[in-house]
Protein: Major facilitator superfamily (MFS) profile domain-containing protein
Amino acid sequence: MQNDSGSENEYCKFDSELLTLFTSSLYVAALVASFIASTITRVFGRKISMFLGGVVFLLGSILNGAAVNIEMLIIGRLLLGVGVGFANQSVPVYLSEMAPAKIRGALNIGFQMAITIGILVAQLVNYGTAKIEGGWGWRVSLALAGVPAILMTLGSLFLPDTPNSIIERGGNDKAKEMLQKIRGTKNVDDEFQDLVDATEAAKKVEHPWRTITQPRYRPQFIMCILIPFFQQLTGINVIMFYAPVLFKTLGFGDDASLMSAVITGTVNVIATLVSIFSVDRFGRRILFLEGGAQMIICQIAVGIMIGLKFGVTGEGTLSKFDANFILFLICAYVAAFAWSWGPLGWLVPSEICPLEIRSAGQAINVSVNMLFTFVIAQIFLFMLCHMKFGLFFFFAGFAIIMTIFVYFFIPETKNVPIEEMNRVWKAHWFWGKYIPDDALLPANVELYANKATA
Structure:
């Protein structure tokens, strides 16, 4: 796009529908796949969903690496999306069900840690393959996605199934042995009885999608929608998906922009480690609140810097100091996301739902996440072109809203056993009115479930 003076508008130089379609097609497939994965996860177990996700992801990476036209690339990208949908549906639930309450947060965030490492590795691969002569480096970059797919597929074959999943399929004795094994003690009678009671209640619920909309599940239903919605409206995908494009727009140059993306990926990994070591010690709320405040400050500062240097016309240049300062602000923003909304956006929805609606709740969480990931990926370059530096103020506004939301509406869930989560909601000043007294008594949950499905 040219401005009146004939020079290229820096905000609009990468506004390409083809680029955004290739990037965002994965998330449409993941959205649809999450609903299918919900049923498979509930009926056949978490392992099967992880295995199927790995296989389909591997097929997508092979197709991308061998692509001879854009259609093959997009089909391969869609298959990758199916794999992502299955993985995001099953892995957080698996981790939450297997982990003891006191370290559930850290173990679940291990899932996010693997994602951040994958992002960093992908950025390093992109940096390296961009230097391959002959124009085929992109094939190596896309095909290497098959490596984590193989690890996930093979790993799922050796993982034990969760006690919850085993009980759902009628293997109570085997489930108790598994619970004793993963807890490292024979004294699991109370926890095992909670799992059995919850499973019996869940079996009585024939329509989990209808059940989750009942008033008694209102807190979980709302959280499974709003948490992934807010997670994507932080603007993180603006940074992580389009980091090289963004840095080129800011005048960093080809190699510098890729290297800057690697730097943000490294920060992402290190900050996720901070979350792993602090989430079960300090809790979820403090990380949400601190991370939100830090993101707000960084986004506003980046918007001001870009506005001062490029203005509305998109003309201008960055000095070395300006570019480095913007990189610092972006890294501080990425760090804030990586120890707050990044991992907690997956952890909290996976741990708050009782068993009878857990698969439905996680499917809603994944689908909303993927829907808004798709929307942001599809319209970001258009928004950058038309909103210019105001785009950062747009996302800062959402960061303010979601930080206020956390303060008033998200209770602390650290160290609470996953099958006793209703007592947290019952004690909350707002959500407590939705939780009936019998929801706190496992023996009466089954009775309610019978009435609800009668």
